[in-house]
Specification:
Blueprint (H helix, E strand, L loop, with lengths): L1 E5 L3 H12 L3 E5 L3 H10 L1 E5 L4 E3 L2 E3 L10 E4 L6 H10 L6 E4 L6 H9 L4 E6 L2 E6 L2 E6 L3 E5 L6 H12 L4 E4 L2 H22 L10 H20 L9 H11 L6 H7 L10 H11 L4 H15 L9
Parallel strand pairs: 1-2, 1-6, 2-5, 3-10, 6-7, 7-8, 11-12
Antiparallel strand pairs: 3-4, 8-11, 9-10
Length: 311
Amino acid sequence: MKITVIGAGATGSLFAWFFHRAGEEVWLLDIHPERAEIIRRNGISLEGISGDQHFSPRITLDPREIGPVDLVLIAVKSYHTEAAAEAAAQLPSRDALVLTLQNGIGNLEKIAAVVGKNRTLGGSTAQGSTLLGPGRIRHAGKGDTIIGEISGPPTERVEKIVTTLRQGGVEANPTANLAGVIWGKLLINAGINPLTALTRLKNGELLNYPGTRMVMQAAIREGEKIARAKNISLPYEDAVARTEAVCRATAGNISSMLQDVLKRKRTEVTNINGALVREGEALGIPTPVNQTLSGLVQTLEESYAQQVYNL
């Protein structure tokens, strides 16, 4: 396959490596000229649990330069989803599949609105990566990558992508319950990400303190109530137990939201905890913990310039 990954950050670079390792032709499409030039000149270097690796994917700022492709992976922050979908639509392949493994909910619908529901696939990944600099990432944690159709059982095209990822060393599986997979990831992110951003702790360290553990559990239980009210079948029996297992499995990982805060960048909290607040309001289900977490992280973002670091 010829594959384009939109977004040359931590996740995009990692999955570009997986596809490259599977023997596929990989292009990166980015919006940052400086980063694109560094990657064009130096390639991408990985360290961490996959060992020291290096490869040189093609990279461009112009989707028209890429030509026809078979698959597009959108690997941008959720607030850039619509722009990424528009870029995917500019590729000359009108039948190329567009896959999202992004955090939060609503990404699938935004992509389908641009490229068409029949071309859109979704899923989630528990692979953890940290962006060390342009073209430099640390592979910090492994976990399942699940892919499915918007509705219905896995198709041949889903199976083909799953097989390719497995050839690249990814623990990948198809699903007939895409909504459950996406919501399952949402609840895990809602429990981990804002707390790491606020405390500056790594994932595994959240379990070491009664306060963070208590807030994590409460945020997740609110999300579980909403999922049940929406008749969403989560891919695990106990969301709290599953989230704590993820914390242990990715103990050394710096969450994407904490990475954003450390770099004083915008976070995805409105698409994670904020999404649970909006869903709860629509159903009449209170979400005070998620509302508080969302408000605190948003305040953290908005006050970067005023924050005191040294007395």
